[in-house]
Amino acid sequence: MRTLRLAGLVWPPLAIVAAVVLGWHLLVVGLDVSPFVAPTPGQVAAAVGDNLPVIVDNTWTTLAEAGLGLLMGNVAAVLVAVLFCYVRRLRELFFPMLLALQAVPIIAVAPILILWLGPGLMSKAVLGAFITFPITLVSLAKGFESCPREVTELLYSLKASKRQEILLALAPSALPMFMAALKLGASTAVLAALAAEYVGAQHGLGFLIQDAQTRLEVPLMWGVVLVVMAVGVLAYALFAALERALPAETTTAARAR
Amino acid sequence: MTASLRQAGQFLLAVLLVGLAWQLVSGLGLVKVYVLPPPLDVLRAFADNRPTITHHALVTLWTSLAGLALGTVLAALAALGMAYSGLLHRAFRPLVVMLSACPIIGVIPILVVAFGDGYGPRVAVAAVASFIVTALYLVNGLSRTDALADELMHSLNASAWQRLRMVQSFSAVPYLMAALKLSVSTCVIQAIVAEWISGTSGLGYLVQFAGYSFRIDVMWAAVLTAVVITLGLLGILALVESLVFPWAVAEGRSL
């Protein structure tokens, strides 16, 4: 019964994907489109198959950049969020700025970062950290805020230390929003890595796309672009799965949102 | 009102503090000028290159706005389709969620090879990015109607169009405004990244070009211009919201 329901959920989007791939093939073949403009799905698959080792190699580079960026951004965000708990004044002063920072195109500093840190791993990771930092920090701050008043008041009357308050009350109530921020941050970190690779890199999927572009290997370019999309989706899915693996009561609030 | 004034004051204070720290750090030579020029140098670079920066800023602004408009219209159509047909909803929603995790800028080189490096590809990626956000939000907004109003419409035998016009459009407005606010920054980001890769104009191009010629002050001026554009557009949106849909402001905050 459960598999039947799952099948009912899965077939409509799969049908769309199949229709898109089929339509793509028919359009390219039917209109006799030049392979430089749009290759057929078969050509793309063949190009990916032929270059699999190179693609896998460069995927690891992009994943490492995105992963390190996500890690640095989130560690920094957790530290600052805790600091905000201890010094309320700082939070009041800088929170509106952080909200604005979330909306601002931080990605535009990528060329500057590459100038500072060189075209290697670090410039991409730092860009990813810059971009994921405000996402997580704002989520954590809002999550801390969502802690029920009665709980903090109880802890206060029990003379709990600030550390106990954070560990016992604030952190658990911030967990759902933190997981949501991680999900969003994971795909954003991939985006940041890719964008920075476009600006200057010697490895990575973004580099591979541009390399294929200059060599006019259009099917390979399409293939790598599809791989990049898959990496972004998988990064998101990984943290979505992690969120589901957490005990239900900690994440129901986030699901309802 | 006083609360928002206070917030604005705090925001300005924080910006001033950061600017002051920046000026001290780079002005006193703690970091090299080519790494981080002092903000006053950046302001001077902005003043000296105002015509150039304005030209590129306008290109980025129009690209983002065109993408925003196109994406929002398409998203409204898609959301209506998904709100009315359960099958369409089940078929497309997972795909749109998947698309939301995709780095859309990946397709820019493909579009450039296929269509040349004009405005088309840049507007297209900005449109796709805003489409994703707005479609997801609007589907939610159209379905989260007031239960009482729903029942009333049902007992009055209202048509689907009347339901849309009188009930659903109201529940959707806070979601639309929230989606637009997210889309604005996404569109500017997409436009800038597209300008890095293709084309000979726009703030993204200017940042790259200034980098090649080691004009770090111009680079920062261009980056800050992008920031100002985004914040300006967000401010306009907030103003429109509070003037046209004042009832949606409070609701939108809880989204």
CATH superfamily of chain B: MetI-like
Strand content of chain A: under 5%
Count of domains of chain B: 1
User: What is the 3D shape of chain B?
Assistant: globular
CATH fold type of the largest domain in chain A: MetI-like fold
Name the poorly predicted regions of chain B.
none
CATH architecture of the largest domain in chain A: Orthogonal Bundle
Written overview of the protein:
The complex is a heterodimer of chains A (about 260) and B (about 260). Chain A is mainly α and about 260 residues long. Chain A folds into two domains: about 1-35; about 35-255, MetI-like fold, CATH 1.10.3720.10. Chain A has eleven helices and no strands. Chain A is globular. The two termini of chain A are about 30 Å apart. Chain B contains eleven helices and no strands. The radius of gyration of chain B is 22 Å and the shape is globular. The mean pLDDT of chain B is about 85. The interface between A and B is large, with 53 and 53 residues.
Brief digest:
The complex is a heterodimer of chains A (257) and B (255). Chain A is mainly alpha-helical and 257 residues long. Chain A is built from 11 helices and no strands.
Task: Note the main attributes of this structure.
heterodimer, A: 257 residues, mainly alpha, 2 domains, 11 helices, disordered C terminus, B: 255 residues, MetI-like fold
Tell me the layout of helices and strands.
The complex is a heterodimer of chains A (257) and B (255).
Chain A: H1 2-30, H2 41-50, H3 52-86, H4 88-103, H5 110-117, H6 121-145, H7 149-157, H8 162-199, H9 205-214, H10 218-245, H11 248-256
Helix pairs in contact in A: 2-10, 3-4, 3-6, 3-8, 3-9, 4-6, 5-6, 6-8, 7-8, 8-9, 8-10, 8-11, 9-10
Chain B: H1 2-27, H2 39-48, H3 50-84, H4 86-101, H5 108-115, H6 119-143, H7 147-155, H8 160-197, H9 203-212, H10 216-244, H11 246-253
